[in-house]
Amino acid sequence: MHGFANPKRFLALAGWLTPVLLTGGLLLTAAALFWGFTQVPPDRLMGETVRIIFIHVPTAWLGMGGWTAIAVSSLVFLVWRHPLAAIAARGAAVPGLVFTIICLVTGSVWGRPTWGTWWVWDGRLTSMLVLAFLYIAYIALAQAAQREGISARIPAIFGLLGAVNIPIINRSVVWWNSLHQPPSITMGKSAIDGVFLMPLLVAVLGFSLIFGGVVLARMRALLADIQAEARLRRRAMEAD
Amino acid sequence: MKAKHQRLVLVLLAIVALVGAALLAVYALRNQASYFYLPEQMQADPPAVGQAVRLGGMVAPGSLETLPDGITVTFTVTGREASAIPVRYAGILPDLFVEGSGVVAEGRLAADGTFEADNLLAKHDENYVPRELQDMSEHQAAEMAEETTVGLE
After folding, report:
1. What tens digit of pLDDT does each residue of B41-62 get?
2. How many CA atoms lie within 13 A of A155 on its CB side?
3. Which of B11, B18, B121 sits opposite A116 (nearest CB)?
4. Domain ranges of chain A
C-alpha cells in the first residue's frame, strides 16, 4: 500500500490504468444506456420516464461516493501526512461535483412528470443540494491551499467535516417524511424488478469506472501542475 | 506514543464528537425537517386552522369522488395507522394520482376538519415493476399489495 504512495510509482500505474478505466467505463455505460433506453419495458406507473433511473441512480451514488473518497483521503493525509492522499482528495472533487449536478438535474426532470413538480425542499433533495455546495467550497479551499499558500490541512479538515452530510442524505428518506420515496435497494433486497435492475447495475459499474478514470486523470494533472510550479520557482531563485 | 498515533487518536476523537453533534442536530430537527404531516400526526397535534401545511399519505381506495361541478374532488388520506383525513381539492390532478397510491397535499386545515388543498403532488413507492407484469397472477398481485409501503416506509 505504501509503495503506491510514492508519486513516481503512482504515475507509472496511473499512466496505463487511466485509459483502461475510461475506455471500459464508456463502453459499459454506452451498453447499459442502450439496454435501458431501448430494450426495457415501461414502468407500470411512470411509463417511459422510468428510464431516467439508469443515469439518476449511478450518478447519485457516485456523487456521495466522491465525498466518501475525499473524507477517507483527508483522514489519511491528516494522520499519515501522505501528500498523495491530498492529491487524491482533490482529484475526486470535480468529478464528484459533476455527478452530483447530473443527479440533481435528472432528478428534477424526473420529478416533473411523476410528482408534478421540478423541485421541493424535502430532506433528500435539500441534503443533496447541500452536497453540491460542499463540493464547490471544497474545490475553492483546495485551490487556495495550493495557490495562496494556506495550509493543506484546512481543506482536509473540511473534507472530514462535510462527510457528516453523507449519512444524512442516505437516511433522509427514512428519518423524515419526504416526497422522495424510501430506498429501493437495501441490504440484499431490491424493490426494483430484475428487468430494470440488471441494466442499472451495469450502468453503476460503467459510471464507476469512468469516475475512477477521471479521478486518476485529475490526479496526474494536479501532480504535473505542482511539479511545473516548483520548477518555475526554482528557476526564478536561480536567476536572482 | 508516536506523533502519527497521536494524530490518529485526535482525528478519531474529532470524528466521534462531530457524529455526536450531527446526531443531536438531526434529533432536534426530526419534526421540522419532515416535508409533510401524516394523518395521525395531524390528528394528534393539529396545526392552527388556516396555517399553510402539507398532508401526506395514501389515497384511501374507494374514497375518490368528483363533485357535481366537475373539477372539485374529495378523497380521504390515510397513514400508517387507522387515521384518515378528508381532503378537498379543485384543479388538475397529477398523472400518477390514483387511489391506493401516495399523495402530498399542500393547503390548510379547515375549521370542520377537512383539509383544503391548493396543490397535489403524487408520491410513488419504491417499487419499480414493468407494465407486462401488471397482468400478474392474483396471488402475486396480493403479495405486492401486501408489501407496498406507498412510500411511507
Report:
1. 888 888 888 889 999 999 998 8
2. 31
3. B121
4. 22-37+49-180+196-239
